[in-house]
Amino acid sequence: MRNYIRHPIDIPIHVTHGVQNREQVKVRNLSVGGLSFITHVLLKVGTVVDLLIPVVKPDYKGAGVIVWRREQSPTEFEVGVRFASDDEYFRVRMMEQVCQIDAYRQRMLIEEGRELSTEQAALEWIGKYAATFDAEHSSDNNTLRAASAEAKNITSAEAKNITDE
Questions:
Q1: Cα 13–17–18 angle (5° rounding)?
Q2: From the centroid of its chain, how far is CA 70?
Q3: Which one of 29, 86, 99, 118 has the fewest beta carbons within 10 angstroms of its own beta carbon?
Q4: Same domain, 93 and 138
Q5: 96 part of a folded domain
Q6: What is residue 13's predicted lDDT score, i.e. its pLDDT?
Q7: Is the pLDDT confidence value at 62 over 70?
C-alpha cells in the first residue's frame, strides 16, 4: 500500500551515483517519500544516489536509495527512489513549492496564453514568489516543525532550532 500521493511532474534534477557518475534526468513523479525518473544507466536496486533538485529554493540536496527499476527499453530504465533522510519538514516544503510552480504554469497558460515548460515556470515562480514563500507559510512552517519535532520525540526548544537547510 502506498504511503504518499504521487504527483506527476516533469522537472530536471541531477543524480550522482558512484564517484563521478552524474547525470541530469527528468523526474516523472514526486511524492513526500521519494521520486521516479528515467535514466540510461542500469542502476541496481539498493544503490545509494545523491540528488540535487534545483527548481525549489533552497535547492534540495539529499540522498536516496533505488527501491525499484523497470526496463522501458534495452537502454532506458525508470527507477524509483526513496528519500534516505527523514527530514519530513523540508520534503513537505519542497512538495508545496513544486505544486505552486505547477499551478503557476497552468495559470500562465489560462491567463496569458503562455505555454511554459516546468523548468521555465520554476524559474519565473522562483523569481517572483520564492522570497515570500516562507513568510506566507510561516505559521504552516511552525506547525510542520512542531509535528516533525513530535515525530522525532524532541522538545519544543529543540524544535525551534530545526532550520531550512
A1: 155
A2: 21
A3: 86
A4: yes
A5: yes
A6: 87
A7: yes
Residue 66 zone, left/alpha/beta (φ > 0; ψ -120 to 50; rest): beta
Nine-digit cell at 111? 491567463
Start-end of H helices in the chain: 88-112, 118-125, 131-136, 138-152, 156-159
Per the model's pLDDT, the better-predicted residue between 31 and 90 turns out to be 31
Q: Grid coordinates 542500469 are at which residue?
A: 42
- pTM of the entire structure? 0.62
Q: What is the mean pLDDT of the chain?
A: 76
Q: In the chain, helix, strand, coil percent, each to 5?
A: 40, 30, 30
Domain interval for residue 101: 88-152
User: Last residue of some domain: 83, 112, 135?
Assistant: 83
For residue 143, tell me if it sits in a domain: yes
What span, in angstroms and rounded, lies between the C-alpha atoms of 65 and 63? 7
Q: How confident is the model at residue 136 (pLDDT cuts 50, 70, 90)?
A: low
Q: Is residue 164 part of a domain?
A: no
Q: Grid coordinates in use for 9?
A: 511532474
Residues contacting residue 82 through CB under 8 Å, at least 6 positions apart: 33, 34, 64, 65, 67
Final residue before a domain boundary, out of 58, 83, 108:
83
